Amino acid sequence: MAKSDSDVAVNEAARGFDWALVRSFLAVLDAGSLSGAAQQLGAQQPTLSRQLAALEAQLGAPLFERTGRGVAPTALALAIAQDARVMQQGAEQLQHRLSSQRARTSGIVRITTSQVAANYLLPPVLAALQAAEPGIEVELVASNQLSNLLRREADIAVRMVRPVQASLVARKLADIALTACAHEQYLARAGTPTRPDELLRHRLIGYDRDDTLVRGFAAMGMPIGRRQFVLRTDDQVAYGRLVAAGAGIGFVAAYNLPWLAGVVPVLPALKIPPLPCWLAVHREIRGNPLVRRAFDFLAEAIPRELAAAAGGHRRNR
């Protein structure tokens, strides 16, 4: 079968064909005029005309004929139009993949928080982060030291105290409710207090060197000494286990309760000042796309997790 003039022209020009001119060619073909194509591409009409002339020179034949209302495609233009559209589609897919690759979050993010938050608050949040961003590797550091961020030992911190260092950027996420609570077996033995002053008749679980609970009682108008807490530990995980073991009445973050089987709140009317929950990141790495994605995810997911725990959406385990 004899080849047409358009086939010969395409084959002869294939080696030096400038693929970047395909977009301009298709724009003119679809618009039916140079001015319409220039407007569509946001380009200058003389520039578009030069690009079209360059493509015609490479092909060795005209692609359009001028008419009173614009331009009309030649047989060569119609012959290569479909292949040109396939090329354009491939270029657009490649551009999309390159953009997605640049935007994709992958790498390591170190997150630090307190022992109790690391054990009870963050696990479901980090599981959700892994499901949403499988490219992010998370290293969880259970520590109460804000200096982790300052020494750049962690990227993001979840804290129950507002960071004051100027080099940190912090966002308050929520107020964490605290509650007096005890195991049902302890209450069956010792009775359930109905008034705040009745707490002093019970075995109270407190902190050792940390005076948070002592100060909290004083703020509620109930000054008590350290030794009125007959069991004392500053280890937050051990503290929760003592309450769950029925050792006495303790004071924990309300989000812990779903994870402490058999532990129930007491004195719901007792007004214990809440703990603020803050999310902090070092100012120098805040703009890192990987850290930013993890930061934004935690900022949305942690308040939801706290609300779910407060609403009793999980059963005791």
UniProtKB/TrEMBL annotation:
Record bears the keyword Transcription regulation: yes
Fetch the InterPro entries from UniProt.
LysR-type_TF_proteobact-type (IPR058163), LysR_HTH_N (IPR000847), LysR_subst-bd (IPR005119), WH-like_DNA-bd_sf (IPR036388), WH_DNA-bd_sf (IPR036390)
What UniProt keywords are attached to this protein's entry? DNA-binding, Transcription, Transcription regulation
Tell me the domain of life. Bacteria
What the entry lists under Pfam families is as follows: HTH_1, LysR_substrate
Please report the stretch or stretches of sequence annotated as the HTH lysR-type domain: 17-74
Spell out the family assignment given in the record's similarity comment: Belongs to the LysR transcriptional regulatory family.
What is the name of the protein in this document? LysR family transcriptional regulator
